[in-house]
Amino acid sequence: MLFLELVLCLVAALVSLVGTYLAIVEKDLLKAVVFSALQSTAYAFIYYLLMAPDIALVYIPVAVGLYPLLLVIAIRKCGRFEEV
Amino acid sequence: MGSRLLAALSMCAMALALAYALTVGVFSIYIPIELRPLAKILVTSAYNESTPLFSSMTPEIVTAVVWDYRGIDTFFEVAVFYVAIVATAALFRGIERSAPRTSVGLSTIVRTVTRIVALMIVVVGSAIILHGHLTPGGGFQGGATIAVAVALALVAYGLAKLVEHRIDYETSLKVRSLGLLGLSLSACIALIAALILNTNAYVFQNQPKTYAPIGLPYAVDGVLISGTVLLLNIFDGIAVAAGFALLLILLSQPEDVARERVLSSEGGE
Questions:
Q1: pTM
Q2: B12 part of a folded domain
Q3: Helix (H) or strand (E) holding B220
């Protein structure tokens, strides 16, 4: 049972790694926010699997709901594409 | 795109190798079966009716630590959040007087779904707040959840519709101040009672202690309320939800209106 949880943690960690990398290299900032939210979702799963439901409960609304929304508002004010 | 995919794949392979090494290979993972001394103290004292002088009477240990054992720490964490909101409000000064234009919002399907989902989010957030002393959760978690409902309504209906229903700068500021006032009062409630009854008490006191016999009842009519923990959770939830709502309302003002208002409040630059 513990092994299954570790494997699920591993999968979530891999997903978060890909999400983080894509969020960093993406030049379209709106897509970068979506990738960042993907990473946050994976982290929320990890918190839950590591038996920290308090942190998971605060992480889901902030990192998946409010933080991408604030970033999207900021992007709307500042421009969508990153200039090299 | 190809090189990017290759880089992502190689990073995945590295993480896989690291995780394999951590779990089964080089460093054998250590999962403690015995509790550490601090955890033992918390587990035996968080809810223990036989030692009421040392117990916080809160079955949820994280909430017990947050609002009872380390109440002052949490107070300063809350203060950091409010300073951030005050800073945002100062940055957008003058905006509260601007009347928003008519906004159409999104399509009927989105608006109908939002109406249902936002209500459910508010209910779940309230449940998280009110059960904060029994199950994982608490004031900040529930408040942030309720703020997501405001965010959804803001996106689906637009700012003008929210202002029409009095969810605007003024209301959220008032509700937030009310929550803060309640938070301060429930932190000092034992102290106020002690001043009236002429005994000793501490700030953030929950249950009676040795030289401070004033304490809130931890159960009312057989229902566990854990003294001040429930009050602190409720007021913190109200204040956090209103604070996030204030932040979102300020930030979702159109850029040209915001610029005009802020510059005109500088004195006609």
A1: 0.81
A2: no
A3: strand B219-220
